[in-house]
Amino acid sequence: MSAAATIGIPLTSSTTLIDDALRTGSTPDMALLEATALSLAEVDANNEIRITAMLGAARFFYICGKPQTGIRVAEKAKAFALETAQMLPTISACIALGACAADSGDLPKAMQAYAEGLNLAQRIGNKGLESRLWLNTGAALIYTGLYREAIACFEKVLELGKSDASVSVLFPDALQNIALCSLNLDEIGPGINAIKRSIELAPEPTDALTIQNRVLAENYYTRLLIEISDFDGATRHAKRARELANRSQSARTDIQASVAEGLAETFSGYLDVGITRLHQTLERSRELKLASPLVLIALVKALEFAGRHDEALKFLQEMLNQQRKTAEANVLHHVHQHLVRLHDAAANAPIEDVKQVMRRMETRVEVVEGRVAKAEVILQRQELFKARVEAMERLAVAAELRDDSTGEHSYRVGRMACLLAKEAGCDDETIFMIDIAARLHDVGKIGIPDGILLKPSGFNPSERLVMEMHAEIGADVLARSEIPHIKMAEEIARHHHERWDGKGYPAKIGGDEIPFAARITALADVYDALTHKRPYKEAWTVEATLNEILASRGSHFDPKLTDLFLALVSRLRREHRDLDHHLGEAARASPFIQARGKIWETLKLAKDEYQQQFQRTMDLQR
Ligand SMILES: [Fe+2]
Ligand SMILES: [Fe+2]
């Protein structure tokens, strides 16, 4: 969006427009409000007033469910605050940007914004803003199912509150989120403690937003109590949720209360009443076009409890489809936005169709091709491809984080696959493409629920089927992504679990029928997955892994490629003392992985400090 500078609305009317929208909650002309907010960076007036209005507008778009617009305004506000050296507004802009990005499903962008904000808040020692950032980071991590890391963020808020009383206003939210994480991690005791404290500390809800929050807390409380078979307690809290919801007009709040009631009734033995209520609630959320995963989860749970497994399976299927659709739509949307922005950065002409843009960019490269040396052209092409794939890559890594908390697996697989391609005699361009394309091999995991992906024990047959769907989901998303030259990545995503003997999935093709890049990636992927720890398995030694790969030569893996791979790994181990470090070089260059690493490092550091302090206290007491 670069048109805003020409609007030229005077400062006072701009800020009035934004103020009115914020104060009254009225829906103004969204396009005008966005243009006005963006134009504020260009007007010649008081910097503080301008930034306050811009941040107000970003918050407004967030509240009314327009996070994409919020992102654009927050990005502009951040750039402006930085330019005019306004520290606190820069941090606030990071918070607004992160919140909008997380809300729109772009976790990598959110993490980058939060990490930047955290860095600044810590540098100036502002604990209030730092706590807000930890709270938001934790919330963003919940979106991706990283519950344990999320808890660490919320605990950081509680810890900061010990030395700064102003932080305590965030305690109820932090504790409520800890309860939600505990519920998902099946850690019921800590969950109950957290939600109890959260409700005790929270002031009596008064407006729609605080009522909604409290109903959600009562909903978590009900579900946690059901897990320890305290059905009387669950019924009490479900009733409380209902009383509160009746004071609010919000349909969302009403649905949360009905879910709590339906579950409490079912588990207290009133099966028909509870299940009927949940069915009606599902209908209602469908009518209102509200996302209904929570209702579906509750209904599946209630039907399972009632022994109605076939019905439960039907709704489970619906839930999976819904999750898959939402995840796919999110990825495609962000990749599209990324391609549009990429074009915007390269040219200022207005664009309507991404494919058209891409053709224009290709032509530009071809024009350049006529003028400069071939090597340079290849390099330009490669840079262009890398830039186009970037958003998809970040989202693939974010999906993978649940499985591999460092986020380096995809990059190491890409690197190892391209080294194997080199051994197999591929040309430089193919080698480059395999490196980038293989990084995306598991992008389909975006559509797989945490409960299956992270299951510590083996899969039952239907869970296995769901897990195996990641190959097709990934290929599907890549095919629909508008990124040119993505064919190889699509083939890798679809076929990296095929086996040489035809017993793999999804197509069950064998031998040379399996695309070459997929055969290569299969070796790199299995090697890396086996040699690293996952939530459901320990790391294997390199020796044991290589023996396994050798034993699967000609059954799982292409025999010729297996020989090349085994020789390659022995050579690489001789050349690099830390092979993982060498293969993960591209990961460490990614701003998203850096942001994540920074957040994690601070959390770990904080924990160590806390433990030391605790140890010291204990020593003194002895
Ligand atoms: Fe996979
Ligand atoms: Fe993998």
Computed structural class: mainly alpha
The number of strands is 0
Small-molecule binders here are:
fe (ii) ion
Number of helical stretches of at least 4 residues: 29
| Contiguous uncertain segments of 5+ residues | 1-9, 348-352, 613-622
In whole angstroms, the N-to-C terminal distance is: 64 Å
**Range of strand content:** under 5%
Rounded mean pLDDT score: 86
Task: State the helicity in percent bands.
Answer: over 70%
Order of helices and strands: HHHHHHHHHHHHHHHHHHHHHHHHHHHHH
Describe the fold and architecture.
- The chain is mainly α and 622 residues long.
- It is built from 29 helices and no strands.
- It has helices at 11-24, 30-39, 47-63, 67-83, 87-103, 107-124, 127-143, 147-163, 171-185, 188-201, 208-227, 231-246, 251-267, 271-287, 293-305, 309-346, 354-371, 374-400, 409-423, 428-438, 450-453, 461-479, 487-495, 516-531, 542-551, 559-575, 579-583, 585-589, 591-621.
- The model is unreliable at 1-9, 348-352 and 613-622 (pLDDT under 50).
Helices and strands in order, then pairings?
Layout (H helix, E strand, L loop, with lengths): L10 H14 L5 H10 L7 H17 L3 H17 L3 H17 L3 H18 L2 H17 L3 H17 L7 H15 L2 H14 L6 H20 L3 H16 L4 H17 L3 H17 L5 H13 L3 H38 L7 H18 L2 H27 L8 H15 L4 H11 L11 H4 L7 H19 L7 H9 L20 H16 L10 H10 L7 H17 L3 H5 L1 H5 L1 H31 L1
The site of one fe (ii) ion (FE2) has 6 residues, from helix 19 and helix 24.
